[in-house]
Amino acid sequence: MGSARLAAAFEKTRNESRPALISLVMPGYPSPEGTDAVFDAMIAGGVDIVEVEIPFSDPLADGASIQRVAFEALENGTTPSDCIEFVRRARSRHPDVPIVFMTYLNPVLAYGLERFAADAAAAGADAIIPVDLPPEEAGATKAAFAAHDVDVIFLVSPTSSDERLAYIGSQSSGFLYCVSIAGVTGARNELPKELPLFLEKVRRCTALPLAVGFGISRREHIESLNGIADGAVVGSAFMDVIRTAGALEAPEAIRRYSEVLSGRASA
Description:
Blueprint: H1 4-15, E1 20-25, H2 35-45, E2 49-53, H3 64-75, H4 80-93, E3 99-103, H5 105-111, H6 113-123, E4 127-130, H7 139-146, E5 151-152, E6 155-156, H8 162-171, E7 176-179, H9 195-203, E8 210-213, H10 219-224, E9 231-234, H11 236-245, H12 250-262
Parallel strand pairs: 1-2, 1-9, 2-3, 3-4, 4-5, 6-7, 7-8, 8-9
């Protein structure tokens, strides 16, 4: 059946004629006790959906900002169990906000696939993005999470063929994560000029909502996606805001930045 919260969030933002604003937090950063306030500040600033990334020692799809954050979170002792508990606390405070785990497969397998799926669902997670899991090898993972109505979201990129786009679209649920570039995560000044054509091609292959990530950091980026994508994922830029502000000032800085991205405030 999948996540009702995710479906409701995309329906709401479609009715408001705007892409959903999707943010990222890393439990344990800026500190084990400080991430809850960052999450709350994002919601207060207008974020619609939150990705919770499990820190991993070899985040191959991530650029320097998230690599650095993952390292610090691991240095702070953050474990997959801590991330599940973080989601449990966030769900108790925000019963209607969709929460999506973003992770590499190793931490899930080390935790135990069936156990992770059950515990993530019990904590209140709506979906998981297994970044480095090929859809062709995802049968057991999809079955484990489907048993708990948790969506499994896969990624497509500008280098994906039409045939592969159709296949990945058929395997994903919740939404399809469209990588805007052939590269790693990281804030950029401009989005690729070819992005609208890429999204048009993806749209022909699936009826799922399309969320665009990698490189998005400005309100004008999000505005440029209106009408061609259903969601905009901002990750590295949020981590950069926290680093610049420092742990004590991070929640207020994150709230202000979220308001700018969501259009509630001007830059």
